[in-house]
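Why should sequence recovery work at all? Because a backbone constrains its sequence more than one might expect. Tight turns favour small or flexible residues, buried strands favour hydrophobic ones, and helices have their own preferences. The token representation captures these environments compactly. In the example below, the structure is given first.
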């Protein structure tokens, strides 16, 4: 017995609605993963821009 086996969907050679449902689920999860990663990236960029903006601004209450 080989300890490394494919999932039942791959072993059965599923076609039609079952394969389409599995492919749709995989695509959906990839889209969700990309959206989450892009939101993290955009938040990091936002924080970097905000830090740069506050670094360049003079401190409040300083007379110039």
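From this structural description, the recovered sequence reads:
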């Amino acid at each position: 017995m080989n300890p490394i086996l494919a999932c039942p969907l791959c072993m059965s050679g599923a076609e039609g609605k079952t394969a389409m449902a599995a492919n749709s689920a995989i695509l959906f999860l990839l889209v969700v993963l990309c959206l989450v990663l892009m939101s993290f990236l955009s938040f990091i960029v936002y924080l970097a821009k905000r830090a740069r903006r506050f670094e360049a601004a003079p401190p409040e209450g300083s007379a110039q």
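A few observations help interpret the result. The helical segments are 8-12, 17-56.
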